[in-house]
Amino acid sequence: MNSSVTYERQGEIALITVNNPPVNALGHSVREGLLHALQEAQGDAQVRALVLLCSGRTFIAGADIKEFGKPPQAPSLPEVVNFFEQSDKPCVAAIHGTALGGGLEVALGCHYRIAHHEAKVGLPEVKLGLLPGAGGTQRLPRLAGVAKALEMIVSGTPVDAAQALKHHIVDELFEGDPRAAGITFAQRMLAESLGVRRTGEQTAALNAADNATLISVKRAEMEQRMPGAFSPPRCIAAVEAATRLPLAEGLQLERALFKECLASEQRAALVHAFFAERQCGHIDGLPAQTPVRSIERVGVIGGGTMGVGIALSFVNAGVPVKLLEVSGQALKRALQRARDIYAASVTRGSLSREAMEQRLELLHGVQDYSDLAEEDLIIEAVFESLEVKRQVFERLDRVCKPGAILASNTSSLDLDAIAAFTSRPQDVVGLHFFSPANVMRLVEVVRGRHTCAEVLASAMGLSRTLQKVAVVVGVCDGFVGNRMIFQYGREAEFLLEEGGTPEQVDAALRKFGMAMGPNAMRDLSGLDIGWSIRKRQRETLPGGYPLPTVLDKLCEAGLFGQKSGRGFYQYAPGSRQPQPNPEVLPLLEAASREKGIERRVLSDDYIVERCIFALINEGAKILEEGIAQRSGDVDVIYLNGYGFPAWRGGPMFYADSLGLDKVLARVQEFHERFGAWWKPAPLLEKLAAEGRRFADWNLNS
Ligand code: T1G
């Protein structure tokens, strides 16, 4: 054994305990310790049964992700799992917390499994660009059947203890201490001579008649939903192997497929995304022990789409909210909107009616600012006008208790100007939610010049309460996400003048992996958004910064997108399904003609480079200005707020994977052809010249 795994015998029962904080990951020392403990138990004649359990907050949460890409060290995880399974003394795993990935695979190698009634089990490897590589694709179907195994392995979503019991993944649930429960079950194993029960030898659950259909349906579904993703098809192939190969051959095929995934760029990208999401919560220069302010009562001002979405984010987390609208009618509409959102979830079956009513109990409508006097946090989501924000913040400054956090949901206005409307700028912060706020995980936490450490730390702490991802950004037009998406959208629009059609541009970017093409996205948000801004920009932008005219031509023709039934696409009444809109091409041709552009056929690669490299170049400027702390933060924003494919790691990771010298060469070429918008970011030039990556750089480097 070693410090990560302890072994003790209690009568005839051997207790093997893993202790590798924070999540008992199966690093080399744990694997080695488990093997030694197993050998000890096998060699101890007095031992007749084994219990595997973990100390700390959770059962094993998987292989040690930090070891990926490093030279493998024996014993491998499959060896450890097979050793458990081949034990001639019955072994029970006592699961608490989350048994994930290799953790569940070790438990599946045991002969029995019991789980705390609040535990979860799952095989999330696909979220890291992998597949369960220690027998999960072969053993889970043997217990839960192909349908459930496919669902869990291809989605990577864990199931709760009740589901695990229902699908025979665990044998029994317990309450209280895993050690006591494990010993009790082991005593029963002995008393009832339960003996070893090797998962790999069970085949009954594999015999469903519709396995082949299930597998081909799942294959088609994943090809449609995640075109280009590397590991999902291999997950399916491994599970399929379980239905037609003996265990040993199935394990061999699983291992081969696992190694293919391990070596893939997508695995590197997804592991980067995993750690980047955890690193973005750390703020350089902010002491880890910075006190946070208690946030138990929240006020939201503005009952529009954003305001209601934000309110529901808190209500869903069990935090009471006072929603303020000054007009009774507007307040009534807002509360009805909240009810309608929950009712839709009840209809879909994702929320019980009882839960809906409980949540609505936490949402109170108010019409007077004085009702917010005792709230700990007030978030305004009113009209995007500095004058309107001024009125709101001046009133909040007069009404709210000392120490209340005053937050703006502004997506584009100057937070420092907003903070200056109050006598307490240190308590003002930006919380830029993304619509729909009760669904989207991302929040940009906008750090004002005077925002104090406590308020910043409190805002970041909200991410755990709300189960969102919070990223700190600095004050500038559009912060990080929107500032970059402006460049991306402008290039997508220019491409329409150069010869692209909405369908082709969207298809190229969908094929790259974007969740939605830029033109479909514009139809969703409304083509008239920014129409007035673009008109103003035409007067104010310096020379050398041409603007495309396509969007305005569509607006002038009354094509505003889904809201008007016609935009880049047309939509049947009540449908969001985009269909080609014949009105668009003539408008594109007119725009090309007015600029003397001869339309030409554009390649998909060219479309992708023009749009994605525009993101990258702007991201580099954002980094060197200190608007984002690190390139991984920019990636987290794009993966969680803009539908960038996680298996590409984010725009900055993608640039690093291409090589910054290659990216710079194309940006320089676009700069020569298209003018000032494409001026290479100095940081991109610097890192490319030094052969470095964005990931190697941070503000203090
Ligand atoms: N390996 C290494 N470090 C890990 C880790 C792991 N598997 N899981 C978490 N950490 C670190 C994390 O980086 C953070 O570090 C700290 O633990 C707390 O994590 C062969 C190959 C378990 C649900 O994908 O889902 O098994 O920031 O902030 O919110 O088939 O962590 O403190 O320095 O997320 O309470 C499969 C990944 C691996 C599970 C806990 N397993 N982890 O969530 O804490 S592949 C997973 C999680 C595999 C086999 C294959 C979550 C959690 P730091 P946290 P949390």
Task: Give a written overview of the molecule.
There is one protein chain. This protein has 3 domains: 5-263, Alpha-Beta Complex (2-enoyl-CoA Hydratase, Chain A, domain 1); 298-473, 3-Layer(aba) Sandwich (Rossmann fold), CATH 3.40.50; 481-696, N-(1-d-carboxylethyl)-l-norvaline Dehydrogenase, domain 2, CATH 1.10.1040.50. The protein has 27 helices and 19 strands. It has an 8-stranded mixed sheet with strand order 12-11-10-13-14-15-16-17, with helices on both faces. Strands 1-2-3-4-6-9 form a 6-stranded mixed sheet, sandwiched between helices. Strand 16 (442-446), helix 16 (453-466) and strand 17 form a beta-alpha-beta unit. Helix 11 packs across helix 12 and helix 17 (481-498) runs antiparallel to helix 23. The radius of gyration is 28 Å and the shape is globular.
Strand portion, in percent?
A: 5-15%
Distance between the termini: 42 Å
The ligands bound in this entry are: (2S,3S)-3-hydroxy-2-methylbutanoyl-COA
> How many helices in DSSP terms?
27
Question: What distinguishing features does this structure have?
Answer:
Rossmann fold, alpha/beta, N-(1-d-carboxylethyl)-l-norvaline Dehydrogenase, domain 2, 2-enoyl-CoA Hydratase, Chain A, domain 1, six-stranded mixed sheet, 701 residues, binds (2S,3S)-3-hydroxy-2-methylbutanoyl-COA, eight-stranded mixed sheet
